[in-house]
Amino acid sequence: MNIKEINGGVCAPKGFKASGAHCGIRHNRTKNDIAMIFSEVSGVAAAVYTKNLVKGAPLTVTKNNLQKSNGIAQAVICNSGNANTCNANGIEIAEKMCELAANELKIKPENIIVGSTGVIGQPLDIEPIKKGIPELVKNLSDNGSDSACEGIMTTDTKKKEIAVEFEIDGKICRIGAIAKGSGMIHPNMATMLVFIVSDVSISAELLQTALSENVKDTFNMISVDGDTSTNDMVSIIANGMAGNEKISELGKNFDTFKEALKFVTLYLCKKIAGDGEGATKLLECVINGADNINTAKIVAKGVICSSLFKAAMFGADANWGRVLCAIGYSGAEVDVNKIDVAFESEAGKIDVCHNGTGLDFSEEKAKEILLKPEIKILISLNLGDKSATAYGCDLTYEYVKINGDYRS
Amino acid sequence: MNIKEINGGVCAPKGFKASGAHCGIRHNRTKNDIAMIFSEVSGVAAAVYTKNLVKGAPLTVTKNNLQKSNGIAQAVICNSGNANTCNANGIEIAEKMCELAANELKIKPENIIVGSTGVIGQPLDIEPIKKGIPELVKNLSDNGSDSACEGIMTTDTKKKEIAVEFEIDGKICRIGAIAKGSGMIHPNMATMLVFIVSDVSISAELLQTALSENVKDTFNMISVDGDTSTNDMVSIIANGMAGNEKISELGKNFDTFKEALKFVTLYLCKKIAGDGEGATKLLECVINGADNINTAKIVAKGVICSSLFKAAMFGADANWGRVLCAIGYSGAEVDVNKIDVAFESEAGKIDVCHNGTGLDFSEEKAKEILLKPEIKILISLNLGDKSATAYGCDLTYEYVKINGDYRS
Hints:
Two copies of one chain form a homodimer. The mean pLDDT of chain A is about 90. The first copy, chain A, is about 35% helix and about 30% strand. In chain A, helix 2 packs parallel to helix 3, helix 5 packs across helix 6 and helix 7 packs across helix 9. The radius of gyration of chain A is 22 Å and the shape is globular. Chain A is an alpha+beta fold. In chain A, a hairpin with a 2-residue loop joins strand 6 and strand 7. Chain A is built from eleven helices and 16 strands.
């Protein structure tokens, strides 16, 4: 199957426009703080939300909207700079955002997906948003993905957007997405905020199935800091404008769509992990030889979440003992005497541990490998044939700096 | 009941001597790297070990020894600079340490508790230890606790030792202890290394009961970095020299002993948490109003382990949203709309969140409170009358620095 990366982000699929603006939630006028995505025609929508018991008000409102509209959506509105969470009037404000956007777009409020990201527990003022929405609607354009992407960033240092095209039934279909996420990243259902759009024609039920299955191996396998956010949400709108025969049953076409979706989400996962707050390195922890997938996932997550291991990676220190230590306390049932560990990057690969015991390896070569910006930690459990991969980043001074004074 | 803090550390209880030495495991000659504790007469011993699947060889050997000796011990030998873990010859080396110490002390190897702490996965050379043991034995003295305490330190910046006296049956009894632990601290049974001695007369069974119950509320409630070490061990030897009537059943005397033991272990917990790698602050997370103790513990641990919250405390930022966020993903069943949060230190107390929603508080006052070295985070769940406290520290640049290059 042929999946081709293309330009345009969320504006690549047919019928989608986007825009971003600075409305004044953030004082920094050089960065957008609000974003909109709009589809010419309404589409089926699916979403997954954080499992944190504390849920941002926008998530509740989005869930209510999609319930009321029977899963039909046409637009996304999202602000940064304030999470609209743990506020007494949170629901009211999130509903007001939908209402204002709906009026301006001449659609129904329940067809809107709403998101917020930023500080928790500070009331969100509706005034700047009221002023910003007309500007967003006016600026909606075919090349607005970049501007929208900026509008949802917080401590992110890099924009995270992608678009792909693929074929179903001889018709070219597209998926585009923007994402944000840098700190408080340890998704347990979805990640901070990911807005995916597609022009594929698909039933609402299969769209939700595809998304729910997808996040288990993608966003739920990232960790920047072990903190599961209150505002995690991944949503997708598919407006059917690609003109393919509607995907309404399992089979080849559904698989093709799922594969394209995975291409998009995995790309964003690596972008989010690699742009973790303060990160200098993307870490991919690849587990092979597990006796079941759950064990593989627990081990992968255990290693990628270890503060000690993450700090060692920052220092390019091949301290594999910390890998073994993290596997040991992860809660997975493994035989520690069968574990092999290797480090790999563009500079090569080096085996450091065999059967749970250290190998005599070149520290110099290991350093060379670990100084690269993308590191794979290859772990073989030698108990079976199941695999899993988790994505994370190193722990750095910058992480502490960013989070020691986030609200100021 | 009267528990009085006294001087002398592990040499305070009758019949105990200690010593430390630099034998050459560490290149830094200014710091001891090996320690010994010895009792004139043998005593009953109890120990708890890490729950990490990867267990240091010294733990296995200690466990074997105490099994072979029916829980009778007379000495402790412990080195720093190398954890003797994940090494092919680990067991052999740990047994050799016991054998060498036993020969020099003229006791049996199975009466020795052996520990190691330091880097994982580098073979431990027996030669320096062989040379060091005669020196340790020669130097055993009544004021050697300090020197022994230094011998077990790794990245610790402060010595952790304490002794108390209390009365049972009109006899003065004593407990003394030394501990080490700074990084890789998230005990799930015991903490890094704690050696406790007492001259109380008690049955082996009740000694183990007291210790096992104790760690649940003390060492198992600390977290510096979420990493459960492979070498965690808490041991206690009670040699009976206080002359009290032997404690061999539950009741008042056993309760007195447990209370004194808790005084000692809680003191060490706070010392370990406050001296967490890179820490500038001791954090105590106090949960009240839980409907059961397990929920209280899960919430306390969830908050104390949150990297984002820890970084906020480093920055003296009253970011209570991160407290709510951590509670929300902790896995505990709570009603987020009933949660109250306050911060407290010697500078006062400030309420920041009521019923899950932010209060309008003085940022200036909050800053003043959070700039102190010991901070209490007071969380009321308002669902019942159960409580728990967890101990931790802030996340700082220094933590990253220390762990980015630990092996070098």
